[in-house]
Amino acid sequence: MVKYCGYLVGEDWLLQWGMAELGIKPPETREDEIGTILSASSNARLVAGVYTYTSLRRVKTSKGKIFWCIAFASDDVCDSKGLPTSRPPEAKYKRLQELLQKAGPPRWFQSC
Fold first, then answer.
1. Going by C-beta distance under 8 Å and a sequence separation of 6 or more, which residues neighbour residue 44?
2. 55 and 64 in contact (C-beta within 8 Å)?
3. What's the structural domain count of the chain?
């Protein structure tokens, strides 16, 4: 299983960001939700200045709960996004950390 190093982001946070920051109307279908989630993730990553360093991935916690993850690194050298294999320097993740109101550096999570 591939592991990703990043910050967990809940669907509710992404949906709220999409509606509040991008003016997207509340989704009516799961397809609408996914579209809002992808747009919100891209926008939040742009706002934080980490878009080119990150990718959105689905991961699960050690307790098996599924989340979205804004990933900075992957332990898979063949990752299609070309993510590095080690955690980024603090300067690259600090703004995203503040935007998401997270404590500490990005953590490693297993892919789904």
1. 9, 14, 17, 21, 70, 96, 99, 100
2. no
3. 1
Beta bridge partners of 107: 6
Output the tens digit of pLDDT for each of the chain's 112 residues.
Answer: 899 999 999 999 999 999 999 999 999 999 999 999 999 999 999 999 999 889 999 999 999 999 999 999 999 877 656 788 877 788 889 999 999 999 999 999 999 8
Show the domain range for 90.
3-111
**Token pair in block for residue 43:** 């926008």
Q: Specify the 3-state DSSP secondary structure of 28.
A: coil
